[in-house]
Amino acid sequence: MDITLIWYLVPSLVMFCCGVYGFLTRRNMIAMLVSLELMLNAVDINFVVFNRYLFPTSMEGWMFTLFGIAIAAAETALAIAIIINLFRVSKNIDVRDATKMKN
Amino acid sequence: MDYSQFLALKQEIGLLIVFLLVFLYDTFCSPKAAKSVPVIACVLMAAVTAFGFWQSCQPATSAFAGMYFSSPVIVAIKNILNVGALIVLIQSLKWANSEFTSIRRGEFYELILLTLFGMYLMISSRHFLMFIIGLETASLPLCALVAFDKHRYESHEAAIKYVLTAVFSSAVLLMGLSFVYGIAGTLYYQGIASAIHGNMGVMLAVALAFVISGFGFKISLVPFHLWTADVYQGAPTSVTSYLSVISKGSAAFAFLVVLTTVFGSVYEAAWEWMLYGLIILTITIGNLFAMRQKNMKRFLAFSSISQAGYIMLAIVGNNGMGVSALMFYTLVYIFSNLAAFGVIGAIENATGKIEMTDYNGLYKTNPRLSVTMMLAMFSLAGIPPFAGFFSKFFVFTSTLNGTDSTALYVLVLIALINTIISLYYYLLVVKAMFINDSENPIATFRSACSERLGMWICVAGIIGLGIVSYFYDYLLTVVA
């Protein structure tokens, strides 16, 4: 059986949609961050697979993936730092309680 | 490798040198000398701005195999952003030296310079890898800036909302780009444009929808605007003003470049109608929510959402005049919005009051601040002869330039009606200051020298840009 492009694209799309769903429904900020990672990793899979199957002579997709991983790491580090700060102030990282500004 | 191509990045390198100087001085100077960090940052930023104006006659250049591109238009938009950033830095001097902030005031200036550097890259890039790096360099330090007031809970709440939406929007944008890569096999703007060549497919439609939503989050278009009000309210006022004009202006320009150069061939087939719907929603909903806001920063957040819709009007026409209209709108918006934020920041620094009802009777105690605020509101609402009228006028003209599509005329009509609605809520502020009486109005106070300087520049901009036609003529000739 041949493993074609679609075998990779469907899981990556499912991953992305799971990430969006998790981001919208999860109430714990760390869990939301995990969902975001899922979305970013789905993007990386897409780039690698497109490069491997459609344009194997160039390396642009792979390079983009490397940068994408680094960017995702930076974003996560920053988000976790902010979550820790919030936890110090309010002892809670539930997004339902982070609504003090609504008026 | 030809190292002389680094010379094409003159402005970026200049900004980077300023960043390094401020960083080194802040790190190694004695605690006593640290007081002068903000002033040094402002002076160096002024030097960068002057250098940018000096660069404005340079011919178009590209570097790094076409990944970086610079032309008089791009230098002009960078100059506009420089001016805005300079005003923000000047206005934040007092806040930076206040009790809670002074211990890490250097960080504020360093992070602002870094985000500006990212915006430069984002505007100049002609390759999506460079674009994404620029975008993240611009948005990650901003998240840290929003969380700057460590002693205030609201600042943290705003920061977590901002960082989560920023990452989410980046992920959505990247997903779109991965599909674009799948279609074109390259990430160069020109390469993608020639690969698309007007062929509208399902995959391209999905990719375009992802890309536009990703940008929509950055520019806070409805329905991607939900983070805006909370972040603007919770962030320190200096950061809010930076977020609302510089960050938005640069993202709007990058959006214009991406849509016209990369997806220009599928304008009528796809993105004209996507933007069309977004603009109507953005202007209308931004206006309707702005009416019921009581907090001044929240109020300006919704006002900036609807202003973003007007900026998009310059893009939806897809013509050369739109570019100059967008740049002029950004310039005018910088002056008007920074004047409003200057007044809000001055009052907040002096008294800590931020509600609209606190402004009742302000004219009797602080007439100059009230008049500045009034000019800003008139300019934002678009009353002639102030600059805001002309920026709106040029944006509407550019939308209809050389088109006979009825739909676009309807769009401009809706935008015009919304201008009248916006007049109502902008005048509410003026009414509060001039007509409403208050039992205990804000006491008379003298705002700091830096704040007054910032406000004077803004007022000069509001009146000068409305009366002197040179600036718009210049932008028109640059684009043409």
What's the number of structural domains of chain A?
1
If interface size is counted as residues with C-beta under 8 Å from the partner's C-beta, which chains form the largest one? A-B, 40 and 43 residues
Count of individual beta strands of chain A? 0
Q: Point out poorly predicted stretches of chain A.
A: none
Strand-residue proportion of chain B? under 5%
Please identify the structural class of chain B as seen in this structure: mainly alpha
At CATH level 3, the topology of chain A is Helix Hairpins
Q: List the helices and strands of chain B in order.
A: HHEEHHHHHHHHHHHHHHHHHH
Q: Please provide the count of β strands of chain B.
A: 2
The level-1 CATH class of chain A: Mainly Alpha
Topology, pairings included?
The complex is a heterodimer of chains A (103) and B (480).
Chain A: H1 5-25, H2 29-54, H3 60-90
Helix pairs in contact in A: 1-2, 2-3
Chain B: H1 10-28, H2 37-54, E1 61-63, E2 68-70, H3 72-91, H4 93-96, H5 105-124, H6 128-146, H7 153-184, H8 189-196, H9 202-219, H10 228-234, H11 237-262, H12 267-291, H13 296-316, H14 320-351, H15 362-365, H16 367-381, H17 387-400, H18 406-434, H19 449-467, H20 470-479
Antiparallel strand pairs in B: 1-2
Helix pairs in contact in B: 1-2, 1-5, 2-3, 3-5, 3-11, 3-14, 3-19, 5-6, 5-11, 6-7, 6-11, 7-8, 7-9, 7-10, 9-11, 9-12, 10-11, 10-13, 11-13, 11-14, 12-13, 12-18, 13-14, 13-17, 14-16, 14-17, 14-19, 14-20, 16-18, 17-19
What can you tell me about this protein's structure?
The complex is a heterodimer of chains A (103) and B (480). Chain A has 103 residues and is an all-alpha fold. Chain A has one domain (5-97): Helix Hairpins, CATH 1.10.287. Chain A is built from 3 helices and no strands. Chain A is elongated and about 50 Å long. Chain A starts with a helix and ends in a 13-residue tail after the last helix. Chain B has one domain (3-479). Chain B has 20 helices and 2 strands. The longest helix of chain B is centred in the middle third of the chain and has 32 residues, at 153-184. At the A-B interface, helix 1, helix 2 and helix 3 of A face helix 6, helix 7 and helix 10 of B.
